[in-house]
Structure formats: structure tokens, C-alpha cells
């Protein structure tokens, strides 16, 4: 069983840091090189990873991983769309669906507001875990070191102790918020979609900063928390 766990951890690390060599992977996982090499051979033989180009052997994931990720993503999108549409109808604002990927969350679907003043984020954009509502919603349910916390605006939380305190609040109330921490003109509230092994996605209501006063922020937070809980129940049944 431990060999399987090591191989899965290695696959996750390769996907997050690719292309990556054995030494770097060993340090990232805290495992001996010999153990990492066995895991890489297993993953390579099964077709999950391949050697990247170059003189030094480095590894990257194959299309097999991407195909499975795409299938899972499409299933999540299908389940999320009616929930997202209900949120948009109730708030009149832009609704985002994001998935965790390494040290970021990635936008995979959005339903835009009809209001003329809007902020459009492109599909595929990556947002930092510590400086976005979607990211903090996910990060609150992950057991991992915080790492580096770069600043993006004057309100970005860059102090680990302050961020840990905020993540405790996220877990207590069910949703995270963003007060211009990634871009000063964006406000958002988000809640994690939880699967059996942890967060699989996050839902958010995103607005220009001027359109989310504190009373509306709390109301939207409750709405997005209920919506994410409904999607979590669907995920648990799959």
C-alpha cells in the first residue's frame, strides 16, 4: 500500500512542478531518491509520465493524465452549471467555478453578469491560493505548509499567522472572501466543493469591488456556501 501512496504522491508532484528531476522530486516529497526512482519507473511503465527533452532526465505527465482530468472536469462542469445559474439569477453577478492545481486555483467555467460594469477573467487563468476568495476557500481545507505569500495589492495577506487566522474563520463560517487582495478592483466570496479526499473545486460570486458592501458580502457568502454544499453532496454520490 505504501508503494501505491508514494507513486500517487510522485504523480501529483510531477504534475505540479513538471518537468522535474529525481533529486528535486526527492526533496519535495521528503523521500529517498531510491524510493522516488521506483515510483517514477512504475508511473512510466503504466504510461502516466514520460521523459522530458534535454540531457538531464526530467519527468512530465502524459496525455493519459490530462484525458482523465478532462473527463473529471467535464463531469464537474455538468453538475455545477445549474447550481451556478441559480446563483447568477439570485445575485445578478458573475459566478466562477475553479479547481485546485498545485499552488493555485484554475478557472474552468464562468457565468457572467449582465451588468455593464464587469470584470472578465479568461478561462484557464490561475489565481494564487492565498490571495483570492476561491483559493482561500480551497486552502482552508488543505493540510499543507503555507509557503511563500507574495503581495499583489496593499490588502494581500502576506503574514503566515494572519493567513492561518483567516483560514480558521473560513472554516467556521463556510466561505472565504477577497477584499481586493489579488486585484484591487475585484471583490468575491467563495466556498469549497468538498469530495471524500478534500476540496475538488470552489464556487464564487465575483463583482467589482464597489458592488460588494459588507452586508451584501455576508448575504452572498451564505448563498455561495449553500450552493457549494449542494455540489459537494453531488460529488460524494459519484
From TrEMBL:
This is IclR family transcriptional regulator. InterPro entries: GAF-like_dom_sf, HTH_MetabolicPath_Reg, Tscrpt_reg_IclR_C, Tscrpt_reg_IclR_N, WH-like_DNA-bd_sf, WH_DNA-bd_sf. Keywords: DNA-binding, Transcription, Transcription regulation. Pfam families: HTH_IclR, IclR_C. The keyword Transcription applies. SUPFAM superfamilies: GAF domain-like, Winged helix' DNA-binding domain. Residues 64-237 form the IclR-ED domain. Residues 1-63 form the HTH iclR-type domain.
Amino acid at each position: 500500500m505504501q508503494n501505491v501512496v508514494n507513486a500517487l504522491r510522485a504523480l501529483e508532484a510531477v504534475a505540479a512542478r513538471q518537468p522535474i528531476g529525481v533529486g528535486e522530486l526527492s526533496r519535495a516529497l521528503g523521500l529517498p531518491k531510491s524510493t522516488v526512482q521506483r515510483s517514477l519507473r512504475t508511473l512510466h511503465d503504466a504510461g502516466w509520465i514520460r521523459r522530458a527533452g534535454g540531457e538531464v532526465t526530467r519527468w512530465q505527465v502524459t496525455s493519459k493524465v490530462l484525458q482523465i482530468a478532462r473527463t473529471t472536469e467535464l463531469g464537474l462542469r455538468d453538475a455545477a452549471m445549474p447550481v451556478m445559474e441559480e446563483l447568477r439569477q439570485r445575485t445578478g453577478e458573475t459566478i466562477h467555478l475553479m479547481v485546485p492545481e498545485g499552488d493555485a486555483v484554475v478557472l474552468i467555467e464562468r457565468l457572467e453578469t449582465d451588468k455593464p460594469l464587469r470584470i472578465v477573467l479568461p478561462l484557464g487563468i490561475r489565481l494564487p491560493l492565498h490571495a483570492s476568495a476561491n483559493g482561500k476557500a480551497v486552502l482552508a481545507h488543505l493540510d499543507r505548509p503555507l509557503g511563500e505569500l507574495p503581495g499583489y495589492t496593499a490588502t494581500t495577506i502576506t503574514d503566515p499567522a494572519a493567513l492561518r487566522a483567516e483560514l480558521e474563520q473560513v472554516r467556521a463560517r463556510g466561505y472565504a472572501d477577497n477584499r481586493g487582495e489579488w486585484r484591487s478592483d475585484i471583490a468575491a466570496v467563495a466556498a469549497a466543493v468538498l469530495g471524500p479526499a478534500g476540496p475538488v473545486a470552489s464556487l464564487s460570486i465575483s463583482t467589482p469591488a464597489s458592488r460588494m458592501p459588507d452586508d451584501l458580502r455576508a448575504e452572498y457568502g451564505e448563498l455561495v456556501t449553500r450552493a457549494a454544499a449542494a455540489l459537494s453532496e453531488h460529488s460524494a454520490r459519484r
